[in-house]
Amino acid sequence: MVGFKKKLPPLSTLVTFEAAARLLSFTQAGEELHVTQTAISRQVRSLEEYLSRPLFIRGHRSVKLTDAGELLLQSVSMGLEHIATTVTELRYAKPESHLTVSATIAFASLWLSPRLLAFKQLHPNLEVRILASDRDINLQTEGVDLAFGCGDYDNQSGVKATFLFADEVFPVCSSNYLNTRAQINKPEDLLQHQLLHLDDEHWRNISWKATDWSLWLKSQDVKGPLPSGGLRINNYPLLLQTAVNGQGIALGWKHLVSDLLKQGLLIKPLQQSLNTHRGYYLVESSQAPLSIEAKTFRDWILQQAQNEQG
């Protein structure tokens, strides 16, 4: 195979040509590349001699491309852009094969963690660091490659958010709890039961209105005071574990309780649900390209989300 050195002119002449052709000015090209206009002209002339044809039509104070120049500009621009993209990705890629992913404590423990085994089986040498926190995470300053978020990202600058799935909320409890209590045939019956609440402290770190029992019952046109004596817990995984233990009825977010429902640890005593009009998103910085590892993880997560939508 003949090497590129024998097939191509010096790379410096192609870089110079691209700048001059894009700007249609030898002077501006010189300013961009920090060389003199004479140096630009010399490089372009060298390239034209190599190709044995003119690339520019030179006027008194302007230049324009010949047909050969137009054709070469298309190829050189595409090639240099591809090289620049790859170089940028490699510059920002972490030297070790690892990535950091952030999510709320609930999402990390209830949705992400159960699925990581399948990802690790596909990529055993990729180290995944999970940063589970209910506070706002700064992707760039905290070294986070990807974040799972729930809410509205339309007006947030500096990030790119990819929609994963919408969510809905409905009551969940254990079958043991239901077997020893009064039947639940309609939403109003919940007022006769032990309700498990997410404490107000949980919602202080979240930018949207709390989705609590008052809101859920109101959405079902249930009137009347909430039953007294319920449990209040500031940690959602702990709240669900309390429901699994048969101590009451909790509100279940569809994608957070899906595995518990499949395992039979929780059941839905009613079919009614509340559409939260919020979605889960996979968030990345728009200020820097993703590493190869992060792209691999992102593509896998998007496939998982698509499977669940189906």
TrEMBL record:
Q: Spell out the protein name for this chain.
A: LysR family transcriptional regulator
The organism is Amphritea balenae
Q: Which residues form the HTH lysR-type domain?
A: 9-66
**UniProt-listed Gene3D superfamilies:** Periplasmic binding protein-like II (3.40.190.10), Winged helix-like DNA-binding domain superfamily/Winged helix DNA-binding domain (1.10.10.10)
Q: Which PANTHER family match?
A: GLYCINE CLEAVAGE SYSTEM TRANSCRIPTIONAL ACTIVATOR (PTHR30537:SF26), HTH-TYPE TRANSCRIPTIONAL REGULATOR (PTHR30537)
A GO BP term, please?
DNA-templated transcription
Q: Which GO terms describe its molecular function?
A: DNA-binding transcription factor activity; sequence-specific DNA binding
InterPro entries xrefs: LysR-type_TF_proteobact-type, LysR_HTH_N, LysR_subst-bd, WH-like_DNA-bd_sf, WH_DNA-bd_sf
Family, as annotated: Belongs to the LysR transcriptional regulatory family.
Name the UniProt key words of this record, in alphabetical order.
DNA-binding, Transcription, Transcription regulation
